[in-house]
Amino acid sequence: MRNVERITSVKSELLDIFMSMEVDEHAQRQRSAAQRSLRARRGIELHREFQKLSRDIAPLPDDDEPQESELH
């Protein structure tokens, strides 16, 4: 009967170890997913910022050339 108790104890410890590993892996996957999401969001923000800057610093029309509204 003592061997059965020992085997049960070892099984229980192994199960506890396995479950804690699963919890740790799950937490790591969640952290990785959150980091990927933040990087993607920042990439989109940077893309939009560059687009806006490109529009903001686009070459202005020369003052020497008559504007279309001035021609009519």
UniProtKB/TrEMBL annotation:
It comes from the Bacteria. Residues 53-72 are annotated as: Disordered. InterPro entries: PA3496-like (IPR058059). Residues 61-72 have a biased composition (Acidic residues). This is Uncharacterized protein. It comes from Vreelandella lutescens.
